[in-house]
Amino acid sequence: MVPIPPGTVRLTDRRTERSWTVDVPAFELGAFPVTQEQYNGGDGLPAVEVSWLDAVRFCNTLSERDGLAPAYRLEGGEVEWDRSAPGYRLPGEAEWEHACRAGTEGPRYGDLDEIAWYEGNSGGRLHPPGEKRPNAWGAYDLLGNTWDWCWDLYDPAVYGEYRVLKGGGWADEHWSVRVSVRRRSHPAFRVDDVGFRVARSR
């Protein structure tokens, strides 16, 4: 986990041409995406084909393993976030974008080929976390390699329970691997370029 200082981030949605500003308190974020080894005893590649609901359940399991009160209450398909709980959780979209920017203002926190695996350099496959340069706050692979699930609903009035994905993946073209890009998917959806990383409130 790396400490993320407080700050303010401006989010944008190209589909609706809407933008909004969010104040982000200090929090902690996983320096790397969760790996298959951590998730299911597999190898050191990022855990993929993990749904949003899978990621939420893993956060609670990890919290219980470390003796922390879980952040989520699950009843059937409903998930409630207990914001006072110290356990692991998914980052909010504003938290993710603030952490990814790490004080920068541009579309990326560095040269794309130096910081991310994407369609132009991935060789059509996943790569182990940490092979590319981190951002200024010590987080790796926020852009490229795998998309990260975020806590937030994408646009409930239009897409219902679909959740936000951020960061771009190994199969995406360069224009998709930018800090501000938002993608959406159903919370039960699983695919080979979507993973997650954990966060904790401070």
UniProtKB/TrEMBL annotation:
InterPro entries: CTDL_fold (IPR016187), Sulfatase_Mod_Factor_Kinase (IPR051043), SUMF_dom (IPR005532), SUMF_sf (IPR042095). Signal peptide: none annotated. Residues 42-200 form the Sulfatase-modifying factor enzyme-like domain. It holds the Pfam family FGE-sulfatase. PANTHER family: FORMYLGLYCINE-GENERATING ENZYME (PTHR23150:SF19), SULFATASE MODIFYING FACTOR 1, 2 (PTHR23150). This is Formylglycine-generating enzyme family protein.
